[in-house]
Amino acid sequence: NAVKMVGFFHLTCIGWVFFRSNSMSQAADILSSIFLKFNASEIFTHKDTISSMFKLSWLLLLVQICQFRGNDLLIVRKWPFMFRGILYFVMYYYFVFYGMKAVKPFIYFQF
After folding, report:
1. pTM of the predicted protein model
2. CA distances for 16 relative to 29, 49, 52, 99, 107, angstroms
3. CB 3.0 to 4.6 Å from 27: which of 3, 21, 71, 90, for a disulfide?
4. CA 26/CA 103 separation, integer angstroms
């Protein structure tokens, strides 16, 4: 089951490449760069972006773990008001101070 989930995730990501590309040749260039010219050391040149991702993702991961352990997707709504308030404040803080710094048009506006 996990193999199917990972495979479907990768197929979805490849589909996004075709959806976002302006042409088939651009999609082919992107895919060839991913599969043939991938250099893991280039990931670390974007330390600010990666740092921002991890600063926000730990909190979202914690919420998902609570949802999984409680077998309830709406578990946050059942938390006491004070805990929910803290969670919402911290999430707002992270989105405002670690979120996107520049405006980028939404993907659907390209059509």
Report:
1. 0.55
2. 14, 21, 23, 22, 10
3. 21
4. 23
